[in-house]
Design goal:
It is a single chain. Strands 1-9-8-5-4-2-3 form a seven-stranded mixed β-sheet, with helices on both faces. Strands 10-11-12 form a three-stranded antiparallel β-sheet. A two-stranded antiparallel ribbon has the order 6-7. The radius of gyration is 23 Å and the shape is globular. It contains 14 helices and twelve strands. It has a domain at 26-260: Aspartate Aminotransferase, domain 2, CATH 3.40.640. It is an alpha/beta fold. The longest helix is centred in the middle third of the chain and has 32 residues, at 250-281. The protein has helices at residues 26-38, 52-63, 75-85, 102-110, 129-132, 155-165, 216-226, 250-281, 318-327, 344-348, 360-363, 375-384, 397-412, 414-426; strands at residues 68-72, 93-97, 114-118, 140-146, 168-172, 180-181, 184-185, 192-196, 209-213, 287-289, 303-308, 385-389. α1 runs antiparallel to α8 (250-281), α2 packs parallel to α8 and α3 (75-85) crosses α7 (216-226). The structure holds pyridoxal-5'-phosphate. Pyridoxal-5'-phosphate binds next to α3 and α4.
């Protein structure tokens, strides 16, 4: 029996770390009761200012420093809407990061456009702004960056690039409620930025999303496209748009308002704990946090990615280290780093009889992602990436110290871990 929990020793962490998620309090119950008694459970029943959804839109947009917010049914729908609202149409290309969630690609496909993958930056795990320009073609209509985990992408470089090329910048902000770049909320900096309120997110409402924008023309299109009847008090687009109904219910709007009262404190607590963890990791060879650019003035996060450097950890494999960490009672994973172009949606490209939008009629050329390769994405996904989920950071600071104790213990018993790895390889 060894010292490591993986080899039969006692784990460092005996109980749960962080906080249970999602949370709620009396205010949620009160607001839900108010919605119930109103008998008006959809925003179209209201003069806007009376609607819980309207109030949530205003509160969330203000929190992220945006002039407008349009609440929708899910974050993925929000991305589709954002792309349409900035003018992406069938046959266009949209540049996205190679490592992220599948609906980033399927949102592009759903509007009839082609996803074009760009490798990620090893410092931040976000789209590598230096590699975007080479991917721009005459068909490119937008860059959709993802603030991966919640770490803002390089907004200065991306904004300069899209403006120079006359294309749009869309943000997938599903992980980044509260994150700021140079003191400004993400989502407000892009032409349109889509957030998710799915049940595990930093604002967890079961389902839901919101698209933020500072542009009046984009707001008009977003609102018109998400609500087929239009609404009292909101501007109607000049042209009739082929809209559908993607609205958020008043129930979710009420939960959103209640969540807003807790959000600033949660963001501050997560960030303080992340700083403590990062400082501790910096003293242990072979592990480190992501690069925290000083322009990231607030780092809120859904997934906290960090790095394992096997060469500095006695040649141990990342997956071996991960197994040892979990055995010590620390819940960890590899986050959202898998190469998206390997997803069967992209490799099979089977969309039915006409195969729209993968067919050559739309793009003028057949699409084929099967030979695609982004070296940094592949390396990071296979050997380096580690992650913690955001509720871990809602506990007391001592929970960060326990995580660090676990990492230090593994480091101290690396020879034992090596021996375990060898037995596993032989098994
Ligand atoms: C990066 C990213 N974008 C978009 C979404 C989609 O959000 P939703 O589940 O609300 O559609 C998710 C969900 O996990 C995500 O991780």
């Amino acid at each position: 029996m060894g010292k490591l929990a993986l080899t039969g020793g006692a784990p460092v962490v005996a109980g749960p770390l962080g906080a249970a998620w999602p949370v709620y309090d009396e205010r949620d119950e009160e607001l839900l009761r108010d919605v119930l008694h109103s008998r008006s459970w959809t925003r179209s029943k209201f003069q806007d200012a009376e609607s819980w959804v309207w109030r949530f839109e205003d509160a969330f947009a203000e929190f992220q420093d945006a002039r407008h917010g349009v609440a929708v049914a899910t974050g993925s729908i929000g991305m589709e809407l954002a792309l349409k609202a900035v003018g992406v149409e069938p046959g266009d290309e949209v540049i996205i990061p190679a490592a992220t969630w599948i609906t980033v690609a399927t949102a592009v496909i759903a509007v009839g456009a082609a996803p074009v993958f760009v490798d990620i930056d090893p410092g931040t795990y976000n789209i590598d702004a230096d590699k975007v320009e080479a991917a721009i073609t005459p068909r490119t209509r937008a860059v959709m960056c993802v603030h991966n985990g919640g770490m803002p992408a390089d907004m200065d470089a991306l904004r300069e690039l899209v403006d120079r090329h006359g294309i749009a910048l869309v943000g997938d902000c599903a992980h980044a409620h509260g994150s700021q770049w140079r003191g400004r909320g993400v989502g407000a900096i892009e032409d349109a930025g889509a957030f998710s309120f799915q049940g595990s997110k930093v604002v967890a409402l079961g389902e839901g999303g919101m698209v933020l924008t500072d542009r009046d023309d984009v707001q008009e299109r977003l609102f018109g496209l998400h609500h087929v009847n239009g609404a009292n008090g909101r501007p109607k687009p000049e042209r009739s748009l082929p809209a559908t109904n993607l609205r958020m219910t008043e129930w979710i709007g009420a939960l959103g308002l209640a969540a807003m009262a807790r959000l600033p404190e949660q963001v501050a607590l997560r960030e303080a704990n992340a700083r403590r963890l990062m400082a501790g990791l910096a003293e242990i060879p072979g592990v480190e946090g992501l690069t925290w650019d000083p322009r990231v003035t607030r780092w809120s996060f859904y997934i906290w990615h960090w790095r394992f450097i096997g060469a500095e950890f006695d040649g141990i494999q990342r997956d071996t280290f991960l197994a040892a960490l979990k055995a010590e009672g620390v819940p960890a994973s590899t986050g959202q780093t898998a190469p998206l172009y390997r997803n069967p949606v992209l490799t099979d490209m089977d969309c039915g009889r006409t195969n729209y939008p993968f067919n050559a009629q739309v793009y003028g050329q057949a699409l084929d992602y099967r030979g695609f390769h982004c070296p940094e994405t592949e390396r990071i996904a296979a050997t380096e990436a580690l992650s913690f989920s955001h509720p871990l950071f809602l506990g007391p600071p001592e929970h960060m110290d326990l995580v660090l104790d676990a990492v230090r213990k593994i480091r101290e018993h690396v020879a034992e871990l090596h021996a375990w790895e060898v037995t596993q390889a032989g098994a």
